[in-house]
Amino acid sequence: MNGAHDMGGMQGFGPVVAEPNEPVFHAEWEKRVFALTFAMSISARWNTDLMRFVRENRHPAEYLSMSYYQIWFTALEAMMKERALVTEDEIVAGHAFEEGKLALRILTPDGALKMLSRGGPTERDGSKKARFSPGDRVRARNINPLTHTRLPRYVRGHVGTIARITGYHVYPDSNATGAGENPQWLYSVHFAGPELWGQETDPSISVYVDAWEPYLEPT
Amino acid sequence: MVVCTLCSCYPWPVLGLPPVWYKSAPYRSRAVTDPRGVLKDFGLTLPADTEICVWDSTAETRYLVVPIRPAGTDDWSEETLAELVTRDSMIGVGPPRSPQDVR
Q1: Nearest neighbour of A15 by CB, restricted to B35, B41, B58
Q2: Can you give the CATH number for the domain in which A172 is found?
Q3: pLDDT in tens, chain B (103 residues)
Q4: Same domain, yes or no, for A91 and A161?
Q5: For the purposes of burial, counting CB atoms within 10 Å of the CB of A100, is it exposed (0-12), middle (13-18) or buried (19 or more)?
């Protein structure tokens, strides 16, 4: 979806301001939201791609006014309500009214460390032949799905060069809609600055984007 | 320079959780279109002919920058060299520490 989360190339947000000696979390509730999100994610009732869609699928004004962990929390709440793991009444009351539903898997402190160090591998086995090779010129398709996609707006319609084949990976556009992992070849695609931002652009800048095969067409 | 314009993907297992600026709209919007300006926000001005490549982490591949080895460190051990490496230099928004800072 063309939401406020797709920020590459937007203007007017002002300078990047780094906080000296920044703490990992800025409030106790942020730690809890981080932990809750992980504990719930391993209950296997949703996947990362669907969760990302729930986070970005909101009014742009709202998305831009919320902090990172506020967005995480609101999305977790929405997912849990949708999957009938919690009710609106329980959230308002701050405690459960019904007996808890059994999670499929339970996150332990040991498991949490392992999970964080392992990440969430998305590479899959596949025998399908890759359509493109390093050096090929490709155009990023002009797509505007209402659903989740990881093809940023600023590269759509533009021509780049395949830099590297990254592997055969879960396709988020499919996985986020519940249509299955539908793995596809993933490429690192190199775009020159002037191709993306116009001839006036500093030619010494360029951008690499990871793009799945269905995002690309030959030129 | 490494960014995630779509959310805030970051190499957690290596660098820990990202700072707030990495997740913020100013960084996510400008890194891909004005990386030189972003570097200036961090107090770093690179020569006009220095090529700047930006990696937008749009998939589950995670990126980090291996900082340039400062001059005069040829005989340094791996441990001492590691002291020069900062988080920001691995995101690609700052230089490594200078050798004088750690000796």
Answers
A1: B41
A2: 2.30.30.50
A3: 999 999 999 999 999 999 999 999 999 999 999 999 999 999 999 999 999 999 999 999 999 999 999 999 999 999 999 999 999 999 999 999 999 988 6
A4: no
A5: exposed
